[in-house]
Write a structure and sequence with these properties.
By secondary structure, the protein is of the alpha/beta class. The protein has 2 domains: 6-187, Spore Coat Polysaccharide Biosynthesis Protein SpsA, Chain A (Alpha-Beta Complex), CATH 3.90.550; 197-242, no CATH class. The chain is built from 8 helices and 7 strands, in the order βααββαβαββαβααα. The chain has helices at 21-27, 29-48, 91-106, 122-131, 170-180, 197-213, 221-228, 239-242, and strands at 6-12, 54-60, 82-85, 110-113, 137-141, 147-152, 185-187. A 7-stranded mixed beta sheet has the order 3-2-1-4-6-5-7, with helices on both faces. α1 (21-27) packs across α2. The longest helix has 20 residues, at 29-48. The N and C termini lie far apart (42 Å).
Length: 250
């Protein structure tokens, strides 16, 4: 079956000292790298299970040999993905180039997802494609005003231009740009980004509660294992995660 839709993961290739630098300021480079590898692998695993879809990844810092990011769980989440280096000097330009690549590769609707919201699930991504059957643009908003996902029926470059990136108005400005073009928009449920230690502690609480009532597989098993200090090669739960709280976040 010919695929007429695409999904592109937009992220940084995991490298010590180069990932999640704001979080690393509190957590340390080694623990942050292990966490980011887990988050990225979980995101790719969920995305890779979306059927009838081209799977792409735009990574900054991609090794020249095209090495795929490591999965600490021993899976191969990037096996269905075509990898490429991000293009563009500014963040908005890189986002736009990645979305243009996805739309042109499939000749139809495309989703772009980041790796900072490990709770994203295959089911949520499928719902995003369903939204694009009735709307031109779909956003997955983050509580900080940004978004973890953007989907488009076609490539609309102005949605990546003149946006005040890394502010609380990113999602709203993107919707305003879409409406200025006469495009219809809709939103998915909000998912939190992980930028600071408090974000990580809140994730640990949510995941503990989710696992206590879950009736199916976790959308982020590698991240869950990291929170328990149980990933291969991990030296227990990072102390900064448990300071002032429980000894076992999960």
């Amino acid at each position: 079956m010919e695929c007429t839709r695409a999904l592109i993961v937009f992220a940084r290739y995991p490298e010590l000292g180069q990932t999640k630098t704001r979080l690393a300021a509190s957590l340390g480079d080694v623990d942050t790298l292990q966490l980011y590898e887990a988050m990225l692998a979980d995101t790719a695993w969920s995305a890779g299970l979306v059927a009838n879809c081209l799977h792409l990844a735009a990574l900054t810092g991609l090794p020249k040999d095209g090495s795929r990011p490591r999965d600490p769980m021993g899976r191969s989440p990037f096996s269905p993905f075509l990898l490429s280096e991000q293009q563009g000097d500014e963040f908005g330009a890189r986002l736009g180039a990645a979305m243009e690549l996805a739309v042109s590769a499939a000749g139809g609707p495309a989703l772009l997802v980041g790796a900072d919201s490990p709770e994203i699930s295959t089911e949520l991504l499928e719902r995003a494609f369903v939204c694009l059957e009735e709307h031109d643009v779909v956003l997955g908003p983050a509580p900080d005003g940004g978004y973890y996902l953007i989907g488009m029926q076609s490539y609309y470059p102005s949605l990546f231009e003149n946006i005040n990136w890394s502010t609380e108005t990113v999602a709203a400005e993107t919707e305003a740009a879409a409406h200025a073009l006469g495009l219809s928009t809709t939103r998915l449920e909000a998912l939190s980004d992980l930028d600071y230690l408090e974000d990580l502690r809140n994730l640990a609480i949510r995941r503990r509660h989710a696992l206590a009532i879950a009736g199916g597989p976790s959308p982020c098993p590698a991240t869950d294992s990291w929170l328990r200090g149980a990933l291969p090669g991990q030296n227990g739960i990072p102390p900064r995660l448990t300071e002032g709280g429980t000894d076992d976040p999960i």
